[in-house]
Amino acid sequence: EAGVAQSPRYKIIEKRQSVAFWCNPISGHATLYWYQQILGQGPKLLIQFQNNGVVDDSQLPKDRFSAERLKGVDSTLKIQPAKLEDSAVYLCASSVGYEQYFGPGTRLTVT
Amino acid sequence: QKEVEQDPGPLSVPEGAIVSLNCTYSNSAFQYFMWYRQYSRKGPELLMYTYSSGNKEDGRFTAQVDKSSKYISLFIRDSQPSDSATYLCAMSKLTGGGNKLTFGTGTQLKVEL
Known about the structure:
- The complex is a heterodimer of chains A (111) and B (113).
- Chain A is an all-beta fold.
- Chain A has strands at 5-7, 10-13, 19-24, 31-37, 44-50, 53-56, 65-69, 75-79, 88-96, 99-102, 106-110.
- In chain A, the strands form two sheets. In chain A, strands 2, 4, 5, 6, 9, 10 and 11 form a seven-stranded mixed beta sheet that branches.
- Chain A is globular and about 40 Å long.
């Protein structure tokens, strides 16, 4: 069974630029999550989708972050404009039941 | 105060040692408890999953949950160099709409030859 796919794996941008991350969940997983993991910390949930509807986006900085999940499968997370403090690994996960499976993440560096 | 507290380590042990990793939490609504292993530059990988209190064993790994003390543990027996990674505890509440995980900061473990 293929795992959660994410791209790109690495991205370096300057502050105030925009960036987008892509995620393809495990086939058949209706729930998709985006997490932010800052160096030395555990992942923090940004947004959770159930099919293509948002379940929880309470910790998403909506002035600069946006996410969508088209047709209930792939998802895109966008940051515009980026700030230095957005430097982190962005993890996508999908689940069936209570077990979440994570992708390899996208490491973002904002200079 | 953070909802989930975890000693970041690093923890260094010799090969073959028994490793004990722990987390405490403050929110009594947490019902599901997980341990994830994260290798450098990889995503977290689910190791163990426990509902409510009790013990669960899987090979060299044992997870314990003590809800009365709000304390969870992961034991690794006969530790191997391949166990060197960061171990993250995570927990969630029973919710109708999904499974929001709250993570600890992770404990970095190194098993030395």
